[in-house]
Amino acid sequence: MNSKNEGLNNPTPPEKMETDIVVVGAGSSGLSAALTAASGGAKVVVFEKMPFPGGYSLFSEGMFAAESIIQQRDYVGITRDSAFKHHMSGTHWSANSRLVRAFIDKSADTIDWLMNMGVEYTNAAALWPNGPRTWHLMKGGGKALIQVMAQQLQKKGIGMFAETPVVELVMDRKNRVTGVIARTKEGKSVQAGAKAVIIAGGGFAANPEMVREHSGLAFAAPPVVPMPQTGDHIQMAWKVKAAPKDTHVILAIPCVPGEKPTSHLWSAAFQPLLWVNLDGQRFCDETVAFTFPYAAQTLANQKNGVMFTIFDEKVKKQLIQEGVDVSLGVFVPVTTKLDRLEEELTRGINEGKAFTANSIDELADKINVDRTQLGAAVKTYNRSCKEHHDKEFAKERKYLQPVEKKRFYAVKSILHIFTTLGGIRINHKTEVLDTDANVIPGLYAVGNCAGGMYGLAYDIFTSGGALGFAINSGRIAGENSLAYIGK
Ligand SMILES: Cc1cc2nc3c(=O)[nH]c(=O)nc-3n(C[C@H](O)[C@H](O)[C@H](O)COP(=O)(O)OP(=O)(O)OC[C@H]3O[C@@H](n4cnc5c(N)ncnc54)[C@H](O)[C@@H]3O)c2cc1C
């Protein structure tokens, strides 16, 4: 127990305190930063907006690593070099190369670090067919991960004040950070002086104004998980001249609204069948579903981010009896037979997100798209199926299934955001840079609020990269802030 740390058994913070390092946010990035800094002998205080730690990290399934002990055990040959090269060419070298390298190089050691704490992994998987197996799946998912990290926080005696959001960064005349101001749930102000501050507040998926302004989307895509990821900490950093970076990068997916990840209705909608937009037009090779960020990106270009998956009675039976081609994370794996589809379709119809009809015209009326357009889309698609050649988007022939036997079905999906992946510009040490690209002394940003990992757009070559980056960047910030404060 580190007696220098305080606050653990003190849910009401004092009005004034002095510490070495303040961490803003207790998600996986903040917890790993706090644990690293405390292990190096620093006095650390964590402020958390919610009543509990974890943020979006609670919902994650797996994290990136290359050359880990799990991969060695399972004969997975992905190297740090090849992961780095793929990530950099995938981002057209628009990502921060030194930051990406620092993250990838640390990732295997981070698996050991977490395993030593008590985190267990089942295996390393890929998020897309034949992709490199870098997605290290935690036993018990993000909840178990956060539980282990939070227990370590307690063991080390690191103070965490819940329901106490940081509302302002305190700077001196030379624009060096000297602490933060937080607010208790009773509305009292807390002044915490610190030599360094690590911003780990996650993304801004739950702030519709910021999403509209920064994501480049022409519509307000809702978050997958309703948590207050409002990005106030990002704006706080911008206020002290931190440069914005990569705010357009989003991790998103087409979702059937209100469905859980185990949903057979959502799974059916996410298969590479016929997809049409609100104009009743097909818009992609639907096998983009195998690489879900591609599905998200093509849907982002459609009106209101809305699409309908259209299929007939024969395909419905196939989904039930033969199973699915595309998985929904680890929740509905490939080949799962959708034995709940019938009942979930009925429920979906009652809830206005699934539709059925005896003709394509009737279906068009029900989903409120133009009859002529939908009729033409189905006709063209059926012709492609018959000719075994998709003249429109070159979809592989084995996924060309005609829509011809009544009844007909449509399931509605809307683009939802898992999280945003940019905000504050940092360098490879996770130091925050100002608008002139100079370091703001003592200020660090990590995880989903830091920009530089993805550049142009999120990709899943490095499956598990979002969570992996959160934890590894947290460790990197912990180490560099220790050096900064002279520990
Ligand atoms: C359903 C779902 C599944 C996912 N699955 C995966 C996966 O399998 N693999 C993967 O790589 N990624 C996955 N992701 C993304 C991944 O969860 C995130 O990239 C990662 O958790 C980000 O960690 P973080 O610490 O940056 O943010 P968070 O975990 O969101 O933590 C930020 C914390 O900061 C707090 N906070 C915010 N503002 C303040 C403030 N002003 N003061 C104090 N506290 C504040 C928040 O309340 C929160 O607790 C998934 C996301 C979702 C939503």
What can you see in these coordinates?
By secondary structure, the protein is α/β, with parallel strands linked by helices. It folds into two domains: 16-249 and 421-484, FAD/NAD(P)-binding domain (3-Layer(bba) Sandwich), CATH 3.50.50; 252-417, Alpha-Beta Complex (Flavocytochrome C3, Chain A, domain 1). Helix content is 32%, strand content 21%. The protein contains 14 helices and 19 strands. Strands 1, 2, 6, 7, 8, 9, 17 and 18 form an eight-stranded mixed β-sheet that branches. Strands 11, 12, 13, 14 and 15 form a five-stranded antiparallel β-sheet that branches. Strand 7 and strand 8 form a beta hairpin. Helix 12 (360-367) crosses helix 13 (371-387). The protein is elongated and about 70 Å long. Residues 1-9 have low confidence and may be disordered. The structure holds flavin-adenine dinucleotide. Flavin-adenine dinucleotide binds at residues 24-30, 47-50, 54-57, 59-63, 165-166, 200-202, 224-225, 229, 232-233, 418-419, 447-448, 464-468, 470.
Question: What's the arrangement of secondary structure elements?
Answer:
Blueprint: E1 16-24, H1 28-39, E2 44-47, E3 62-64, H2 69-73, H3 80-90, H4 97-117, E4 121-125, E5 135-138, H5 141-155, E6 159-161, E7 166-171, E8 177-183, E9 189-199, H6 208-214, H7 232-239, E10 244-245, E11 250-255, H8 264-269, E12 274-277, H9 292-300, E13 306-312, H10 313-321, H11 341-350, E14 354-357, H12 360-367, H13 371-387, E15 408-420, E16 423-425, E17 431-433, E18 439-445, E19 450-451, H14 465-484
Parallel strand pairs: 1-2, 1-9, 2-6, 9-18, 16-19
Antiparallel strand pairs: 3-5, 4-5, 7-8, 8-9, 10-16, 11-15, 12-13, 13-15, 14-15, 17-18
Helix pairs in contact: 1-5, 1-14, 3-4, 4-14, 12-13
Bound molecules: flavin-adenine dinucleotide.
Flavin-adenine dinucleotide binds next to helix 1, strand 3, helix 7, strand 15 and helix 14.
